[in-house]
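Progress against Task 2.4 (sequence-to-structure conversion) is shown through the following example record, which the project officer requested during the mid-term review.
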Amino acid sequence: MVPRGSGPVLVRLLLPLVLLLPLGGAEQRFAMEPQDQTAIVGSKVTLPCRVVNKTGALQWTKDDFGLGTHRNLSGFDRYRMIGSDEEGDYSLEIYPVMLDDDAKYQCQVSPGSQGEPGIRSKFATLTVLVPPEPPRIVQGDFLVTTEDREIELECISQSGKPAAEITWIDGLGNVLTEGLDEIIEALPDGRRFTTKSILKLTPKKEHHNTTFTCQAQNTADRTYRSARLRLEVKYAPKVALSVSSGRLTEGSEVRLVCKADANPLDLTYRWFINEELVAGDYTTELVIPNVTRRYHDAIVKCEVHNPVGKSEESETLDISYGPRFRTRPRSVQADLGSTVTLTCDVDGNPPADIVWIHDDVGKVVGTSVNLTLDVDRHTAGRYYCKASVAGFHEVGAEASVLLKGPPTITSQRIQFGIPGDNVRLECIAFSIPKPEHVLWTFRGTEVDASNKDYTILEDPLAEGIKSTLVIRESRDQHFGHYNCSVTNPYGSDTVEILLKPQKTFPLLIILVGVIGGVIVIIAIAMIIILCQRREKKPQVDCRDAEKQCKESDRSSNISDLKMELRTGSSVSNVHCELEYGPDSETGSESVVTRIGVPLAGPVAMPVNGGENIYRYSTEFTEPIFPPKDGQNNNGYVPYADYSRDYNPQPPPPPATTLESSRESLTVQSIDPRYSAAYGNPYLRNSTTTLPAPHSTHNTLISHNMGTPAPPPYSATTRNGAVPQVARLPHSPTTQYIVPSSQPTTVKRGTLATHV
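Structure tokens generated for the chain above:
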């Protein structure tokens, strides 16, 4: 129901609407309108626009600027309207898209010819995207830096729309999210942007010779574009210290190796032991020969320098060593019923195993450092602490639990002294605690130290005392019974000591006994030495020696040899006689001869103004040399050069037979120059023993012309008889001639000559 008076009002409102209705055909309308789009520079874009019942003119506007009503859109080479009029398709195609194409677009239709109203589509925004330029790192592609010094790496990506996104990646492939600052700046066109990313980095050793990558992208191009920088990091040495040996034992050699990684490699090494610099030119190794236990738990440090800085590493030594007492066990004095503790403080690595043994019972009573005991008569005594470490010698020490009590005297009850000498009486006592007082009495009277006859000396002993009573210039009345009393807080002990006189042994008898003993020892030593020499002396084969001498007699000139007769005093003669006995053919004793130096010739004697004539031994009497005190020449004759004047005569014609030559020996004179006694007065005697000829074939030797003949030689003995001569049997030479009427044995004795 319409209210009263409202009719005229409705008419007035609806009248304008009626006037606006078209008078003619159908209304123009959009079948499809353009939408917002995004395009990348260089791509193709189509903005759709379809119109139904189009009667007016259609055009596109760009930012409200009309592009034209013709489909080819002359003046805009990259723009054109596609489709057909029949379909009513007037879509706008843009190719290639440029940054200038970034704008708002609208499809408009003007009013129709029959009064159809014009229509406009909604605005469509075309957003043109521009990929950023390749990024670049401001610091270049290589950078040298130092460890732990902060640096900044800057990466720039320009002309991106939208602004580029920059990502940093380190050499290990990790994306960096910390220490980044990003700055976006718009370009003058107001559409593109420049992005700057700054990476703040503290280089480490791990960054040395690694490459940092800067990547840039935006929505226009999802493919990353990148720039790279290689980083060289100079860093202080990185030290690794190791002990090359295995188990370190005392007395072994310890070798420590220090390895350093650094850039640059200009390294200097220094070694420290417990913060003390080790002297020496050590580099990568430190050698400690014969390491001792004092190096246990020592801190060895290797410090390495280079131009960047220094670095160090340390190692604590673990030295194995045998047990050694820090504090040896100490004996303790205790009262009966008390409690005591014995301590065995031993140093060893690894810690020593400790065993306590009670010596009195031979049992193990503890295995710890401290041994606690309740003192009684069973637990008192000596204890042995034994400490051992595997691989080393064990050590041990003793300590005793001493039960306190009265003293005990251990001195001899009978002691001796020499009357007239200083006599010493000793009283030795032991007790726990030590004795405090010693009292000497003699015949019921206390011995007073102030008495000039007595002196009392007291020497402390371990757990005891030694008191000495000295009696000066003792007499008979000083000998007898003495009492020694020793006292401590727990009681006393008294003993009676009998002092007896001691008889002296005569000094002369002592000296004789000592001297006799020395003589016996010397005699025994000499006998032993002589026996050893005899055992070492080579044995001589007497028969071989005799045979050799005989052969020498046949083949050599006897006058060129000097023979030495060794008799009973020679060790070899004694041996030969014992072995072979007297000569089996003649009954005479075997004589051993040895070849000597050439026999001497005539002695040149100056006469009549210095002229020399030949003199012979038969011209001289037996020389007598006065004896000198304490001197014995042992047959030594001073040297004389007889060979210089020796001029032998040519031999006469040889005898027909050996027997005739032997017979001629009995009647012919013998040249004394060929005698073994010539030149040696000790081989001559007062008898008329004739020397042997120079050779068994020569009985006489004449003298050269101009040489004085020797004086006549008397061939008669004292009684005027001519003695018969014979050669010693079995003798290699015929030098010693004796009368045939006498025995052929040769007097024993050593005939030593020195020419």
